[in-house]
Hints:
The structure holds 2 protein chains of 2 kinds.
Chain A lengths: L12 E11 L12 H9 L7 E12 L4 E5 L6 H8 L7 E7 L2 E4 L12 H11 L4 H15 L14 H14 L4 E5 L7 H16 L4 E5 L3 H7 L2 E6 L2 E6 L1 H38 L2 H13 L1
Parallel strand pairs in A: 3-7, 3-8, 5-6, 6-7
Antiparallel strand pairs in A: 1-2, 1-4, 8-9
Helix pairs in contact in A: 3-4, 4-5, 5-6
Chain B lengths: L4 E3 L6 H10 L1 H16 L7 H21 L11 H20 L3 H10 L7 H28 L11 H25 L3 H14 L13 H8 L1 H15 L5 H25 L8
Helix pairs in contact in B: 2-6, 3-4, 3-6, 4-6, 4-7, 4-8, 4-10, 5-7, 6-7, 7-10, 7-11
Amino acid sequence: MTNTNTENKEPVIIAEHITKLFPLRSQRKRKKRESIFSYLRKEMSFSKKEDLFKALDDVSFMVYPGEAVGIVGSNGSGKSTLLRVLTGITQPSSGNVVIKGSYGELFSLNGPLNKDLTGRQNIYLYAALKGISKREIEEIMNEIINFSEIGRFIEEPVKTYSSGMRSRLGFSLIVHTMPKIMFIDEALSAGDASFSRKCDQKFAEYLQDHTKTMLIVSHSSNALKRICSRIIWLERGVIKMEGEVDEVLTAYAEYMSDFSLRKADRKVRRQEEKERRKRERKGSNKRKKMDESEKSGN
Amino acid sequence: MKNNSIQVHKRNTFIENLRELWGRRDLIWVWTKFNIHANYIDKELGLVWIFLNPLFTSAVYSLVFGDFLGVREPRGGVPFICFYLSGIVVWHLFQDNVAGSNRIILSDLNLMTQVRYPREISVLVSFLEQIVSFLAAFVVMMIVLIANGYLPNNNYVYIPIIILIESLMIIGLMFFFSSMGVFIRDIGEILQPIVRIFFFMSGVIFPIENVQGVIRDILLVNPMFTIIDSFRRIVLYDKPPDFQLLGIFFIVASIILVTGYSYYKKKDATFVDHL
């Protein structure tokens, strides 16, 4: 009964044909003959299509209420960009996103925190940023502080916190204020093993409520297996595979070990080869001397 | 399903934007409060510095211009510190906001990539912080004026109007320069000298009677000159401001604000793509 009856429900997240283009900085240099004004005009609009990098290419999918959908993909495949487009933080070049209900995002555990403010002040600021009223946040204030295990440090400025404390506070803040639809990027757990167990438990509780929905980007296949009911595999801005957790994760793992690693390996080997040749060709006396002195040193 | 679909990338109309902004007034207030707090929390004297800063700078300036260079106020023998302070208080609201406006978005860009909020709040918070400094400087100015025998008069009721016109213009310019600053980082280098030229073209440190010719004409068409001069007429000479001129600059300031804001809203979705 957990995730099978999605067909008769209406989707809560609808992504239609999302394409996202980024300007490449290296190609943004002014050409010699170009006047400064036309350059500036071009600079401020992404009108020249050939200067652009396609981070997402015609991505469409739907997410139904009660689902936890994981997004996997190698580095630079557009996962984070996809989440940013979905949450409205950045504009897609074309395509459309519809979300039914209030939603929240979690992209970094200590991002929104202002280091000069105390932990408690940061909680208030965060609540205001997310549009949570002061009364609402005060009701769950103690719960947030207790869960984070920060104790009396809550009255100290965040800059005095250890990184573990910071992410614990951030995490606690977020899991206690999660709206019905959540977008999470690479921040499934924080702190040591015992805290991390608490986090997992909190997520499980959250998902037990079948009206709640989650979209998670992660590299940890264990975490995804625990939480998700469906996986979307993104590769170079395109959905390569979509479906059951085990099926997609196995295919993805195979792809990664098979292709990517060998490719990376090849790349490294090619680089080494190139450098070696360069060294041989340019084999200056200086280098030789250095090598010799190194050898004699040894 | 309840009919609460959110079209994530819909462009809002002007009115919708204002309504959304009004709905987030909590955030504006809390953010401003904490920013001011964070600026002074580590200092031993804390918020006292808001009052001490204008006092120190005006003491230095009036020493240099009044005593070393011998600039005098010709109309009624007003002590130079009073003449200077009444100008600089209004001027600093402009300078502190506009000269640093290119950095507003750049400093919040990290937050913008992580949290969704109406982007114009960054600008408004930055402005409100400076308004607090302005109010503190105003208090300091009042103390100095009263100590020199210039008591508050009936014309003080016009001061909010003058500051309102100035604020409209400042916020408009801030919207414009802050969004430009994201795309063209050179803005910051250009802005500083321009604001400095504006300082000398606004008659903050010398009365208009001291200059003739083109410079005088420039002063007269410069909104900042009229704003500062009107303010001075009230606090030093107990005269009402020139309403016709203020009316014109009110319209100019409104146009600056609306175009600046429209430009900002047109560009704000692409800020995070220009890290």
